[in-house]
């Protein structure tokens, strides 16, 4: 059961991605020229996407994958090219519309079903793997773990996700956020400590059959993110 703070923040994110900064995110997730600051964000996101994909099987034929917070669909496309049956969902109808417009031809058995809605919707069904890249970074630790617990109820393999690490550098980056036009700023990122998050995961009964297998931090100046893999034992 999702908390009221999760629902509130999800609504804020819908407004941001669907109305406030559509043009900025459309450019960031394309090959269009961007500022030097946003270029570091683009490079960091590319590196993180590659890392998360490296934690998934090379051959995903017959596997069902949830791309939770799919944005414009770059990760979903790569998973589908490995043969996965991808359900790619996002709260923003505009970003999902862009993803559909940009969808290339997928050779082989893979497919993508783009949807608009909540990544925690139980009607999405069961999955072999779940990926939540930068879709949990705006939530506090308790809401992150609650979301992971709900996803775990219908995940048979692994959940790979990212959080914003609590570091001095990230604090500086937040202070430097004034470089961005106000209309481009997302709802605040909530930094968390890896150790604290792991302790909460260990206490969550719905995650008792999952363990943190590996972690990796990506640092690309204005993009700082920490990836974790939860795998069912």
Low-confidence stretches: 178-184
Arithmetic mean pLDDT = 89
Our count of domains comes out at 1
Specify the helix fraction band.
25-40%
Q: Could you name the CATH topology?
A: Rossmann fold
Q: Tell me the total number of β-strands.
A: 7
Give the full name of the CATH homologous superfamily. Answer: Vaccinia Virus protein VP39
The largest β sheet comes out as:
7 strands, mixed
What's the number of helices? 8
Query: CATH architecture, please?
Result: 3-Layer(aba) Sandwich
Order of strands in the sheet with most strands: 3-2-1-4-5-7-6
For the termini, the CA-CA separation is 24 Å
What gyration radius follows from the Cα positions, in whole Å? Answer: 17 Å
Strand content: 15-25%
Q: Specify the overall morphology.
A: globular
Give the class-level CATH name: Alpha Beta
């Amino acid at each position: 059961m999702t908390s009221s703070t999760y629902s509130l923040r999800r609504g804020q994110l819908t407004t941001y991605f669907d109305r406030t900064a559509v043009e900025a995110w459309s450019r960031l997730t394309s090959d269009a020229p961007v500022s030097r600051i946003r270029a570091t964000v683009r490079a960091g996101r590319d590196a993180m996407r590659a890392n998360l994909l490296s934690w998934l099987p090379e051959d995903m034929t017959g596997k069902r994958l949830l791309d939770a917070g799919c944005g414009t669909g770059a990760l979903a496309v790569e998973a589908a090219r490995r043969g996965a049956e991808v359900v790619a969902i996002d709260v923003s109808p505009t970003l999902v519309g862009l993803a559909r417009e940009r969808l290339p031809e997928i050779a082989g058995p893979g497919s993508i079903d783009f949807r608009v809605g909540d990544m925690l919707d139980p009607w999405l069904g069961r999955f072999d793997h779940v990926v939540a890249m930068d879709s949990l970074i705006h939530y506090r630790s308790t809401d992150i773990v609650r979301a992971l617990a709900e996803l775990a109820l219908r995940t048979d393999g692994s959940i790979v996700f990212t959080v914003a690490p609590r570091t001095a550098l990230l604090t500086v980056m937040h202070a430097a956020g004034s470089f961005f036009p106000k209309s481009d700023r997302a709802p605040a990122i909530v930094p968390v400590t890896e150790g604290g998050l792991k302790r909460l995961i260990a206490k969550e009964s719905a995650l008792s059959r999952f363990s943190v297998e590996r972690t990796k931090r990506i640092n690309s100046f204005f993009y700082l993110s920490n990836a974790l893999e939860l795998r069912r034992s």
